[in-house]
Amino acid sequence: MDYGAKILSFARALPQTVVTNKDLEKLFDTTDDWIVQRTGINQRHVIDPAKGENATSLGAEAAAKAITKAGLKPEDIDLIICATATGDYLFPATACLIQKKIGASKAAAFDLVAACTGYIYALNVAYNFIRCGQYKNVLVLGVDLMSRFIDWSDRRTAILFGDGAGATLLSACAREEDAFKTFNLRADGDDACTLFVPNVGSHYPVAAADITGKPTMVYMDGQAVYQFAVRAVPETLAQACKDAGIEPHELDYVVPHQANTRIIESAAKRLKIPIEKFITNIDRYGNTSAASIPIAFDEALELGTIVKVPGRKLKIAMVGFGAGLTWGATIIEY
To answer: Annotated catalytic sites, by residue?
Structure first.
């Protein structure tokens, strides 16, 4: 049989603790107005290990919600792909820990690292597993806890990131019911070190007694990343639309990676897509890396921001970009 894939459900999970821009004013020289004007962010959620919050707990919460929404049981899941750059261990995979926590005993599980683009990459991998007939029900997770790697005295990065988890459950269907119209994935390692977190245990071996700096914190060349993003987002969206046989203005909605409001506005302007079609929640969550797209999609469905049209399926683009450098998009009918 020639299989397609459909989306059964979205779900999300956020830490309980909220850190506002006013809270950050107490940590370093910044203001709420300065942060909002440059990023669009008002607040972000941050894990509290004392409350038992980690990548596994958030990922498992989002996964369990997605499974319940789809009317399935954990044992119905055949594969778990967790897009994360901030898993609880170097190994085992966070996907395996989530598999145990939710009781998906029959599922294969692995992690995928493509930073903020990880969710799009993971969707494409999941789709191909379903298309070839190997698996029926695949759970795709985006889970990142960037607060673990933030220097909370550095306003260049501390203002940007939040923690969270998003889940999407895909299932096999007849080819004519396939929800996915195209994928466009890209990478360019030439600029890899414009955004990175060093691994102090391997490439940068450091003895604890010798640490005088902050070798495990995220480094970002903000201007370089911004220039990359304002080029990459419209480029991959335009190519995905071309591959799907539609024009950008025909999209009903665009769910972008939530990194910076100005990047989203730039993409809308370049592609001549009304900004109202872009789903954004960066003001409440900040940049949750691989989790941002499924979190935004799930919340938009819950709030009714994505409005279904009787008699036809919506054309929706999802687009991500981030460290690697990586970027990519997919277009679905939903």
So the answer is: 116, 257, 287
